[in-house]
Design brief:
The chain has helices at residues 15-23, 47-50, 55-65, 106-118, 135-145; strands at residues 4-8, 36-37, 41-44, 66-74, 94-99, 123-126. The chain is an alpha/beta fold. A six-stranded mixed beta sheet has the order 2-3-1-4-5-6, with helices on both faces. The radius of gyration is 14 Å and the shape is globular.
Length: 149
Amino acid sequence: MGGRLMIIGLPGSGKSAVSDLVEGTASDHRHREDCFYRTHSFEVPGSYIENHWMHSVVIMLSQNQAFGVLLLIDGASGETLYSSGFARAFNEPCLGVLTKCDQLGEEERKRGLAKLVDAGTDAVLCLSTTTGEGVNELLDWVRNITPNE
């Protein structure tokens, strides 16, 4: 089991914003083609999900470096490339996060959360960094799975 929380999502899904919440501080990094490591988390570039041949790399990263996984879907676009059951490949706890929920109606939320359930996540939640919806639940989930040091 690794020492950081792995955050996965397509470009624009909110990986950096979620990582900022977990870290408790903002990052000024720009778009990257490699993983971005921080103290408590690391962001996996969206290209690793867009290219199916990279999925084995994502699984290896989780096994070697992560104590938990956040699987993000951008609520604004609803786009996902996660295959059915994708998250079941991880040995670590996996939370599905539908971001930008403040922009969504009830039906859009249901569809987004259903995609995360289909991807095989252990649990799901709606998150908005604009309104604060889901922030406490996300941070509680992370605290509960963080290994004692």
